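Aim 2 progress update. The chain analyzed this quarter is reproduced below.
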Amino acid sequence: MFSALINVISRELRTLGERTADIIILFLMPIFWIAIAFFLTGDGIVTNVPVAFVDQDNTSLSREVGRAFDANRAFGLISYANQPEAIDALKAGKVYAVIEIPFNYTKDHLRGIGSPIVMYLDENRYAVAATLQSEATTIVQALESELSMKVALATGSSISEAERILKALQADFYAVGNPQNSFIVFLGSTLMPGVLMLSAILTFVTSLVRENYSNSISDWLSTAHGSYLTALTGKLIPYFVYYSLLLAAYIGLLAGISGFKAAGSLWLWFACGLACLAVMSAMAVLFVGISPTWRFALVVTSGYAAPALAFSGFSLPLDSMGPLAALFAQCLPLTWFIEGQAQEWIFGANISQMRTTFLAFGLMWLIPTLLGLPAFIWNYNRIRNKEGAQT
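Predicted structure tokens:
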């Protein structure tokens, strides 16, 4: 059996070496897209985002507010004379947000009635808008504290009394795992494994259906001494090893080169990735097994893989999804890889705390294997018989 397995692996590598298109699509394109996902974030920090600034008050206090925003790394303020011009710039996509200091801003504060700083955000660009909103909130809170201190002192309070008033209600926030609000973490940690895992299942399926459209099932099986299990294992091993290396490189990019060290075990993080790849290989066998034609198998795989990123919990929590959507999301291995990655990279979970994650991977591998292997054998025996009839 071992010699048959080696023969199948050797045959797969020889066949792959004769197919330049397969090498480009199955091996080089995933690297290209992972690199794109990594480098599109630049240094990973949101800096100098074009934001329109409209000062309707034109007082020393309003100019102080403008300087506070301009000093923040996220804001690249562009002054506009009035609100309509600033809103037009927002509509035209020239700026990502508008900050407006209203008329009588200073007078209202001196009278103790307050006056809000108005901010318009392009929520369609959610990630940038959320970052700008968070930074603006921090700036405004600092300004309000400073102004409240001045008002308290102006009304006769001592410095200690003013500090006591300001410190009466406080909150501490900890951005665990991403204190710098880095987009490498925010986007790259989902996009890169998403590209990797989805490329893997398309690669697995492509390698399997190649024997179908090449009319070479009989030759493939004879190399494996008639064993479908050996034939499948030998065919998928080279791709599994390759994507395992890409997975290790991805972890190295985030936890090594980018400097975001893992709080937990790199080995457990890597094990989550290997488990996800194993599920992808089992799903590939299932999809090819239940598909009447090789084209249909590729269509089914694409339909399964395409929405995976949206359902991974990256943009919307699973608990906020509808019941059917949440169920579908929990059946996607990428969802559980993102979960396992957070457990190790961010929170430093131990193996016992990850039992649910690995149990989910185990079930997602076992069920497709039990269903897919018999279906695959039946389907490919049927196609092989047609090959024999044609010859």
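The two ends are 29 Å apart (CA to CA). Residues 2-41+182-390 form one domain. These observations will guide the mutagenesis experiments scheduled for the next reporting period.
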